[in-house]
Write a structure and sequence with these properties.
Structural class: alpha+beta
Strand content: 15-25%
Helix content: 40-55%
Radius of gyration: 34 Å
Number of helices: 30
């Protein structure tokens, strides 16, 4: 039983008395309160209307909110880097910075969103520009996802009445060798005793890496004026977009530094900012009020390697100023050749950055193609000073407004300074045909996607492809041919004048074209070419005159229902050129296309249109007969076009595979570059499909038979080490030697081996134009000693163009173990520079002995490769594209799909689209080989017989 609790009788009586008293007191208080209420009624407190809370957290999309508009930045950057290492001091490369951005608030907000990536932001201060009032910062968040948002939540509201505020930040970042943002580069300087290490700082902001250098509104439409100061060590030089305003010596932590302050920039986008600290020298040229300087390693400038660039730059600049009727707006134009640079070049306003191979020319070592490349890249980047810098696309979905224009204009600019090259026609081979091949895949994309389709840095980077550059150029060339060059440039002048220092969309361009010309249908014609994916094939029956169009796709998966308005130029056997615009899907009958006996029809004269043409079999045969009897009746560019169209139509199953092969038979009598280059580009597909099969032997016999007359045509030049006068003849001589040597023409392989052995013995008399081809042929037929000799020459070479030739040739060996070793070298930046890794692996993959090795290699090292080369403009998309271009079996297709499964979309990054295209292409290849292998074998067996 449990224990109880007991109290006394007196205590119990006292408790009852207290309780009763308390109850009486409570009753009395209630009565008094009610009496008071009756005398004086209380007032109800006011109620407030509910308010919409200020949003917190990141915006719903990956785009910056439209509440803040930047006006100007004040930026201080201090890279902690020694150009030369004093007393073997170790580098600890990093940079410090401060930035003040002045912005206008147009909508009430308590949040500031801008971009920052891989930065340690140590201080944030927000103030009102007029009153100086400090706006308290509640918290900051650096979002570590693809938004790269730097979020600042405030304690008070920024008033959206147009008031101005300033955001001050202090930050630190690492100087990596990743070729993006602000990065470190290393090179060697030859001294009397040995090579000494040298270092420099350079930048690459496009498309989304300004945010790696300082917190900023990193979108192309967020233009602002930039006031830059670079604090650098006293034995170095600093450069940025604008001219130097002042230099001041400052003492920091007991060390002497120089603060170089630059003049304010024009109003421009963040991706155009540029910074460099180096010990370079320059070649200077005056052009009116503009000082043009070509910066490079001191020994390169001293050797005259910057001379060619310094000659053509002012000439191209003046050509553009005259054509656009707008002067270059800055007071200086610096161009710098960097030992390490991810892209070919970058158009930073006032400070254009290049790879050395794209700016430096040595007439004793560099080939004509190197010279053409330098001129083309310079012309491309100078065109950007207007198209991209002065007028910028509003968002990256219209990137082609920058790159398509710069690509097309570069051909006009080079044609002005090198008129003997006839470069304007080469756009067909270099831009249009490659673009059409890429654009014939279902996984291609329109010139202008919607903004919603282009959001992440990976999606933005993937647009830097052949569609934005080459298709953009092709479509502009087509429009110029349609309305005439005078109206075309009148429209461009209006466009540049109307949108200078701001942003535009493609509809703005078409509108300006209409307003400046007599053509009022430009918007309706160009809409399809801009917004629709792909391009049409025009099919013509010359018996009935029926014409129809449909989208050309290599691997048809259904009807696409797309219609283009197609400007057509055509001619018949009488050689009279006519033109019209074909607007219907068809079929419709055109009496002009009905032929009389003996006539032939040729459409798309000089390939001014971006489309393919298919004919009835009878007209095809008439055109082939004309090629074989007197090919000069067919315009030169169209001889190449017929070959290219025929091969691609056969791949898409419009015509029998033997028809395009027949177009190559006449080449035994052809010496011009255009048709030969078109044929070789397309026969390369046959080589890729069949160089691992029994077809390759008969194919080589046929190619030997076809190329020997061309090889003999150039033999005197080859034997005497002289150069043909025409640029295209120089290129076709290279074709002749390359095809002859790779297909075992004895005279060619003996010649290449002899010249290479002479070099090994101390005398290199190989002409610069032929070095790549002869090096490759000799190493392919050579042994380990030949390879090691070439590798030592590569390591010793100080001229970038020579290093590139050797780097390519080293991939030509047939020895598996050497190719495997070469692949391993790409993981070591002291052997293969990071900027050259992707192209080196691609070179190895093009070698039939190296293709499987390269595929295994990138799969084994994909995580490292994608991290090192997947950002910015160092896209690994071309790696996927080229390493898999030989794939034509079910086993290889399954490997590709497994690779796709192993790495989800985030893991592939900018290579996502390239992988989709590789899978689609492989599926098409499998079907094509299955359907055509025996027919192709029979044809080559028959044609390879000696007649």
């Amino acid at each position: 039983m449990g224990k109880g609790v007991y109290i006394s009788k007196g205590l119990a009586i006292a408790t009852v008395v207290v309780t009763v008293s308390a109850i009486c007191g409570i009753v009395l208080m209630v009565v008094m309160y009610q009496l008071q209420i009756e005398k004086e009624r209380p007032i109800r407190p006011p109620t407030f209307a509910p308010t919409t809370p200020f949003p917190t957290g990141p915006p719903p999309s990956l785009r910056l909110p439209d509440s803040l508009i930047p006006e100007s930045y004040e930026i201080f950057l201090q890279p902690y880097l020694y150009v030369e290492l004093p007393n073997a001091t170790d580098q600890t490369p990093f940079f410090k910075g401060k930035s003040t951005v002045r912005f206008q608030c147009v909508k009430n907000t308590r949040s500031i969103f801008l971009h920052a990536l891989q930065l340690n932001v140590t201080k944030v201060v927000v103030t009102h520009s007029v009153t100086g009032k400090n706006i308290g910062v509640e918290r900051t968040t650096l979002h570590e996802n693809e938004s790269n948002f730097f979020e600042i939540q405030l304690k008070d509201v920024l008033i959206g009445n147009g008031s101005y505020y300033e955001l001050f930040t202090e930050f630190k970042g690492q100087l990596l060798d990743d070729l993006a943002g602000l990065y470190m580069s290393q090179y060697s300087k030859n001294t009397s005793d040995e090579k000494e290490k040298r270092f420099l700082v350079a930048s690459q902001m496009q498309p989304t890496d300004a945010r790696k250098v300082f917190p900023c509104f990193d979108e192309p439409a967020m233009k602002a004026v930039f006031n830059v100061t670079i604090i650098h060590r006293s034995d170095t030089k600093a450069q940025s977009n604008s001219k130097t305003d002042a230099k001041t010596v400052v003492n920091i932590d007991g060390e002497k530094w120089v603060a170089t302050k630059f003049a304010p920039t024009p109003r421009m986008s963040t991706y155009l900012l540029a910074f460099t600290v180096n010990g370079f020298e320059s070649k200077d040229t005056d052009y009116g009020h503009i000082k043009i300087k070509i910066f490079a390693r001191p020994e390169a400038v001293k050797a005259g390697h910057a001379d060619y660039a310094s000659i053509i730059t002012p000439e191209i600049l003046k050509f553009y100023e005259d054509r656009f009727n707008l002067s270059y707006p800055l007071f200086k134009l610096d161009q710098i050749a960097l030992p390490d640079f991810g892209a070919g070049a970058m158009e930073n306003w006032g400070l254009i950055m290049y790879r050395e191979t794209a700016l430096l020319y040595d007439e004793h070592v560099s080939s004509t193609s190197n010279k053409e490349w330098i001129a083309t890249v310079i012309a491309h980047e100078l065109a950007h000073q207007w198209f991209g810098n002065l007028v910028t696309m509003k968002w990256w979905n219209n990137l082609w407004l920058n790159e398509g224009f710069a690509t097309y204009m570069s051909y006009l600019g080079v044609d002005h300074v090198e008129p003997d090259w006839n470069i304007r026609d080469l756009i067909v081979l270099k831009e249009i045909q490659p673009a059409m091949e890429l654009d014939s895949l279902n996984s291609s994309h329109p010139l202008s996607s919607t903004e919603a389709e282009v959001q992440t840095p990976s999606e933005i980077s993937s647009l830097f492809d052949g569609i934005s550059y080459s298709k953009g150029a092709a479509v502009l060339r087509m429009l110029s041919a349609y309305i005439g060059e005078s109206f075309f440039f009148a429209g461009l002048k209006r466009y540049l004048q109307m949108y200078k220092y701001t942003n535009a969309e493609y509809a703005d361009l078409w509108k300006c074209m209409e307003e400046a010309s007599i053509y009022k249908d430009i918007q309706s014609i160009m809409k399809g070419w801009t917004e629709q994916v792909g391009y049409p094939v025009i099919t013509i029956n010359t018996t009935s005159g029926e014409v129809f169009q449909e989208r050309f796709v290599l691997n048809q998966t259904g009807s696409y229902g797309l219609i283009w308005q197609v400007p057509i130029k055509y001619m018949k056997s009488d050689l009279k050129v006519e033109d019209e615009v074909f607007k219907e899907k068809g079929p419709v009958r055109n009496p002009e296309f009905v032929l009389t006996p003996g006539q032939w029809l040729l459409v798309n004269i000089n390939c001014t249109g971006y489309y393919r043409v298919n004919y009835d079999e009878d007209n095809w045969n008439k055109l082939i007969d004309q090629l074989e009897t007197n090919h000069d009746y067919i315009p030169l560019i169209n001889r190449g076009q017929l070959i290219d169209d025929a091969f691609n139509l056969a791949r898409a199953k419009y015509i029998n595979v033997t028809l395009p092969l027949k177009t190559t038979k006449y080449l035994v009598n052809e010496t011009e570059y255009f048709p030969w280059e078109s044929a070789l580009n397309n026969l390369q597909f046959f080589i890729l499909m069949f160089d691992r099969s029994e077809i390759y032997g008969p194919m080589q016999k046929y190619l030997r038979k076809q190329v020997i007359p061309l090889y003999n045509y150039f033999q005197n030049y080859t034997e005497n080490a002289t150069i043909p006068e025409k640029l295209t003849d120089q290129y076709n001589q290279i074709n002749a030697i390359s095809v002859a040597c790779s297909n075992d023409v004895p005279e060619c392989t003996e010649m290449a081996t002899k010249l290479f052995q002479e070099w090994r013995n101390g005398t290199n008399r190989i002409p610069p134009n032929l070095k790549s081809t002869i090096y490759c042929s000799a190493i392919a037929s050579g042994d380990e000693d030949d390879w090691n000799f070439a590798w030592k020459q590569y390591e010793a070479a100080t001229i970038a163009t020579e290093k590139d030739k050797l780097r390519y040739a080293l991939s030509c060996t047939k020895k598996i173990w050497l190719l495997n070793r070469y692949l391993e070298y790409t993981l070591d930046p002291t052997k293969i520079r990071k900027m050259d890794v992707v192209s080196t692996i691609n070179h190895i993959a093009r070698n039939v002995a190296g293709q499987a090795l390269a595929w295994d290699f990138i799969r084994a090292h994909w995580t490292q490769i994608s991290q090192d080369y997947g950002g910015g403009l160092m896209s690994v998309g071309s790696l996927i594209d080229e390493v898999t271009e030989r794939f034509s079996s079910e086993f290889e297709l399954q490997q590709l799909k497994q690779f796709q499964r192993d790495y989800d979309e985030d893991g592939m990054g900018p290579a996502t689209r390239a992988l989709e295209q590789a899978i689609e292409r492989t599926e098409a290849n499998i079907q094509w080989v299955k359907e055509n292998k025996q027919t192709v074998l029979n044809w080559f067996l028959q044609e390879s017989l000696v007649h």
